[in-house]
Amino acid sequence: MAIETFSWATERGEKPEIKYRVRESRFGGGYKQTVGDGPNNKEDSYPVTITARKQKALKVMEFFDRHAGAKAFLWTTPMGQLGLFTCNDPAPVPIGGGLFKITATFERSFHP
């Protein structure tokens, strides 16, 4: 089965969380040694929001349900970088007038 692409437009403006996993050893005299923890030590996640009418919101939620928080999908970050991501926290909230606001967090995923 091919990897699906999340292609719905997301609202911009939320701050991503970017961290680098490192291992550190401290020695006497203030010296320390730091190395990256593994080949993929960058951890990044992006809060996203989609505001849509009910039919479109249902399609977005069906996409999330197909991936069930574990199966990765392709998504392009706000800086234009294509990558693999997972999402295990989508929340559709009715905001009135037949509109729904879906909030979620996309977390970077890696495949061997």
Task: Please describe the structure with a list of short key phrases separated by commas or semicolons.
8 strands; 112 residues; two-stranded antiparallel sheet; Phage tail protein; six-stranded antiparallel β-sheet; mainly beta; Phage_lambda_TipM
Topology:
Blueprint: E1 17-20, E2 22-26, E3 32-36, E4 42-53, H1 54-67, E5 73-76, E6 82-86, E7 91-96, E8 99-108
Give the overall shape, derived from the CA principal axes.
elongated
Measured distance between first and last alpha carbons: 17 Å
Count of separate DSSP helical elements? 1
- Give the uncertain stretches in residue-range form: none
Could you tell me the radius of gyration in angstroms?
A: 18 Å
Q: Count the strands? A: 8
What percent of residues are in strands? over 45%
Order of helices and strands: EEEEHEEEE
The largest sheet, given as strand count, sense and whether it forms a barrel, is: 6 strands, antiparallel
Q: Structural class, from helix and strand content?
A: mainly beta
The percent range for helix content is 10-25%
Average of per-residue pLDDT values: 93
Task: Briefly characterize the structure.
It comes from Pseudomonas donghuensis. The protein is mostly beta strands and 112 residues long.
Walk me through the structure.
This protein is 12% helix and 46% strand. By secondary structure, it is mostly beta strands. The mean pLDDT is 93. Strands 1, 4, 5, 6, 7 and 8 form a 6-stranded antiparallel β-sheet that branches. The chain has a two-stranded antiparallel sheet with strand order 2-3. The chain has one helix spanning 54-67; strands spanning 17-20, 22-26, 32-36, 42-53, 73-76, 82-86, 91-96, 99-108.
